């Protein structure tokens, strides 16, 4: 039986395309069928044995053993859109920067490919979010997110009024710039920038983080993974914008209601040599483990 892999690349970076060619050649030499999305082929200059697939479409990853994302977090999220519906494991390979989503680094690319060929890796499942927006009794948007779903003000000069329900019960009405609903994976992204807590990825929970809320109680909340959030745009406020993972956006008219809950499908992340999340956190934020004044003598 032929083994297969889908290669998703940030073609705007020369380094990414160079390493993508190396990965494709190594996988082909190991007997893999290597698939590449048609719109990326012209920029990659790959061997003729590579299979071109139409995309972006989940069918591109149908039946593959693994999806490899060559680039930063944006490339990873784009690859996740292909891998998640068909439950394909996803390996992120970054460009030398420490990241939360990528697992392998360019400096260890040969070893990463060898581990893929040997099957020497484990697969973790990351919680996702399903989101639905309704207005006037009809669905106007439906999507999902790995990191976060945000509802933000659509007009810079005006505050957004949002009524927030948790588990079907009203929690608070915020005059704010918006609200972020995040997963533990996304806790170090937008939610972190808005003042939310860092949550270890193994924790099953949902986060709700108000953005610049004019309220006495505007602390970020961590709820059970079974919880659901409802964010209703006040009928007398300005329009809002719904955004999933910073990639997919919709305008929300006053009176629209957004429901966010745990996603039915997780994203399956490949881990080659898993590192403690503490180590990743320290490296990403350059935390002063010896203290701000250096080590004591």
From TrEMBL:
Catalytic activity: NAD(+) + ATP = ADP + NADP(+) + H(+)
InterPro entries: ATP-NAD_kinase_N, ATP-NAD_kinase_PpnK-typ_C, NAD/diacylglycerol_kinase_sf, NADK
GO molecular function: NAD+ kinase activity
Documented EC number(s): 2.7.1.23
Binding site for NAD(+): 73-74, 78, 147-148, 177, 188-193
Compartmental location: Cytoplasm
Main location per the UniProt record: cytoplasm
Domain of life: Bacteria
Active site: 73 (proton acceptor)
Cofactors demanded by this protein: a divalent metal cation
Keywords: ATP-binding, Cytoplasm, Kinase, NAD, NADP, Nucleotide-binding, Transferase
Annotated coiled-coil segments of the chain: none
Listed Pfam families: NAD_kinase, NAD_kinase_C
NCBIfam families, sorted: PRK03372.1
Function: Involved in the regulation of the intracellular balance of NAD and NADP, and is a key enzyme in the biosynthesis of NADP. Catalyzes specifically the phosphorylation on 2'-hydroxyl of the adenosine moiety of NAD to yield NADP.
HAMAP family (alphabetical): NAD_kinase
Similarity section: Belongs to the NAD kinase family.
Name this polypeptide is given: NAD kinase
Species of origin: Paractinoplanes lichenicola
Gene coding for it: nadK
